[in-house]
Amino acid sequence: MYHPELVCHPECNLAESPLWDPDTNTLYFVDIKDAMLYAQRANGTLEQWSLSRQTGAIVLNRSGGLIAAQQHRFVRIHLSPFREEEIASTCNEPGHNRFNDGKCDPQGRFWAATMDDNCKISSGSIWSLDPQLKVRKHASGYIVGNGFGWNLKGTRMYFTDSEEGKIYTWSFDSAYGELGERTLFVSVASDLGLPDGLCVDAEEHVWSAHWDGARITRYRPDGTVERTVSLPVPRPTSLAFGGNNFSTLFITTARHQLSEEQLREAP
Question: Which pLDDT value is given to residue 92?
Fold first, then answer.
């Protein structure tokens, strides 16, 4: 039996993209709607920075700091002193789109999905930024693209289509960063909430957060349910492993558009 423990509570509107830095024992995450970046330090202190635009996902930068998928662009975030530096932008993205979730593949490419900020139009696409700062569009037609992950060999990429309640997997050419055939991995019943962010563990099981489902699910590599973990909040958004030996699963959550009654029930 698992008993989730509260790590920090900055009352984020839409917390997303938990990211563990093993060199500094720091948990980073963003609040998309309030355009904030947070860092929970090992000593328990919480640092925060205001971002210039809504930021959907962050990854570690090999030369220090972070790389972020922000609105319609990729930026390098310098932390000391704090500074944002645009390094690449997307082309022909609708004005109502913004970057949402994203992660790095095993070769260090940053993959991120754009989405309609009103969650109505299938105008979102899958983009990648490689270490040479080349931006590529790979697939389109998603309302809320979400939840990237890879198997240990880097031959499969997972991706969540939240509005459709589906998690897909593509065959993946890790040498060239190319997507192959797409197949359905999981279809989530509507009464279980919408699949949101995901991560893949060392046993190649996929952990997925259920927006409006108050739970996370661990799927076997064949897509069958291995376990579910109930949460005391309705809207988990994403999750990532960290801590000692990466043995802790960190989960971000949202209060975005919850009623006062719902917030009283899940403070």
Answer: 85
